[in-house]
Amino acid sequence: MMAPLYPSFDTLHKTFGAGPSPSPATSRTPLEARLDLYSAYSIADDAKSKAKKLSAEAQREFEAASAKAQSKAGKIELYSGKYYAACTFGGMLACGLTHTAVTPLDLVKTRRQVDSKLYSGNFQAWRHILRTEGVRGIFVGWSPTLFGYSAQGAFKYGWYEYFKKTYADIAGPEAAHKYKTALYLSASASAEFLADLALCPFEAIKVRMQGTIPSQYSGTLNGLSTITAAEGVSGLYKGLYPLWGRQIPYTMMKFASFETIVEMIYARLPGKKSDYGKGAQTGVAFTSGYLAGILCAIVSHPADVMVSKLNAYRKAGEGFGAVTSRIYGDIGFRGLWNGLPVRIVMIGTLTGLQWMIYDSFKIFMGLPTTGGAAPPEDKEHS
Hints:
The protein contains 13 helices and no strands. By secondary structure, the protein is mostly helical. The longest helix is centred in the C-terminal third of the chain and has 36 residues. The protein is globular. Its main location: mitochondrion. Transport of phosphate groups from the cytosol to the mitochondrial matrix. This is Mitochondrial carrier domain-containing protein. It is found in: Mitochondrion inner membrane.
């Protein structure tokens, strides 16, 4: 007698256990599968149920913490001193945490910009660094990155909110709405001009730490003391002009394109921005930020290469024009785009996460998210 083609119910029961029994109140249709034979379905349902419970619990915890923080801070009026302070703190979190998290990407990008022949590819670079310098080697430059970009983020987001409101008031409601892109561009350029004054010393230390093997400084304080002792305070600002050249166009693109993409997304969704919950709004922020980050990376990349080269190769007493011409003569136009693919990944991810963190913090403090429809209390400034 031939063995049956399929295992018996007893065999399945002993192997997988009993699945959920059909409810006696409902009868199966002729084509409906027997759930007791497919216990994997119940496992999937259990996982979904647990995930929903965890999500709901996390949401409750977030709302409880948010309510507590808002009660301590008191009511935050839009465009008040408290509002700009909250935006400043949110920007510090957004930029400091994200830039520090992608230090391994930044390390390889910087080294490949300084010497394009050093590594054949990004993964080969990380393998080589791990093998020769260990795990700590992958995070060379994390401390000046954390300090520098925390300060830069605080200045950038805080001043952007301030300049956007101030320029809108100067222009008037109609002109501010009609020329809103120009408003975003001018506000972000003004904010980044100030933010780079805070970033530049730490960027100089970071680039020198990452661009030399072994790293010439043991940390941020060692870098500060060494550079100022040998070159004075001006040594920390050698890269200020190319930093402005990199960061100002980058930030103009970052803020203007983000605001525009957010508006486009909400314009194509049913209903208004206010109809969507916190999760959906932060999702829009991340998507818009990632797309804006790709544009930022392309626009600012040649200046980024020059910043890396200048901080590593500028000779004592050499003028800015002279060193720029010398570096361009060495690498040519094509060399200005070295490391662009990894920077697109890095900046896209960074920018998306920054906007998500920034808008999440604004929600946490009871403030409206950035972009899209203006808050009802301030329609005249939209």
